[in-house]
Protein: TetR family transcriptional regulator
Organism: Kosmotoga pacifica
Amino acid sequence: MSTREKILMAARKAFAEKGHDGVSMSEIASNAGVKKALIYYYFPSKEDLYYEVWRYSLDELEEHIFREVENENVYVKKIKRLLKAYVDFVTNKKEIIKIIQREKENLTRKDQEMWKKVHKRYIEFRDKISGLIEMGKSDKKILEVVDSEVAAELILNGLNATVDPDKLNGIREIIWRGLINSDNEKAGD
């Protein structure tokens, strides 16, 4: 693991435990086993480091769930796989999910450039899920009344509500039944 990656992993752990405002660069340096000045070599500020952790975390989540659906041609199975992959990620990557959950209320902050960038990256991710839902609507696999942005927010927020696998699977099933046109449900089994 490179020094940069060690710093990112130590920062991710610290931010997951204490949030952006609860962590000092000294603490991150100590956890990474590096001098604080070395962090500033890679990341000019705490905000830059936080953004990189956020981006890296969302990239990992996005890659995980979309890798599961990229080769699936049956749309209903694609959505079901996306939901299952999200549940899998939430139950196995708790640190990343904690960061996403912890800083959710800060996504609408406009007082710092970093929060604007964090929000923009979140919207890009949400829009990718929303686009998948829109595709299903145009193929008549998703109910026409479903607002794709609201459905994407429900997926992102609902599947982050808990790390209990049974509850997550229950939430996944509710989301699934709310999206899929009942005429297409058999194709997802």
About this structure: Residues 113-138 form the longest helix (26 residues). The mean pLDDT is 88.
